[in-house]
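Q: Got a minute? One more chain.
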Amino acid sequence: MNLEHFSADTMRITKQLLVRRWAVSTLLAILVFAVLAASDLRLEALSGFGTAELQRFSTAQQYNAAFMVWPSVYAVRAGFNWGLDYLLMPLYAASFFYSAIIAREAFAPAGSRFHRIITMLAAVPVAGAMLDMFENALQLFMMLSGATDGLARIALTVSSAKLMAIMLGVVMLVGAVLAQVQERQKKRLKSP
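A: Always. Here it is, folded:
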């Protein structure tokens, strides 16, 4: 491919395709999240600790308490949850990214500062998914090599940043849903 002939026009997708990708990634993310939540609640009921609970841990002692219980009976269940979380990450990142683009196109005039800000913020949930990957890898490392208070604090910091990115993604998702509702209302008003 000759890069001289490559233009921004080749990277454009139709609004219909954008909305379809948003809907599919959002529905899949919700489905995987529901399975993960149910599995994690079951792990917590059986062992006293769920993988999602690790996000709030700030000391090696807290991690070690969970890691003492899991290897004996629940290692496969905890590993399944971590693996499923890795499947969830690209799904929610895509959903939130598409949500930001849909919300931007509906509510921010092209060329405005608000339009540019939303464009930049669309990358935040993607960064959040990368932080989620790092957080899970760090937790697995602590389980296999031993937890320290320093690593626990790093994991808590990464987890907090990830949660902020996800919260921004949820705001963008709500914006995209509102944009779709608004568009359907306009179509209803136009049709006789």
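A: The first helix runs from residue 15 to 47.
Q: Perfect, thanks.
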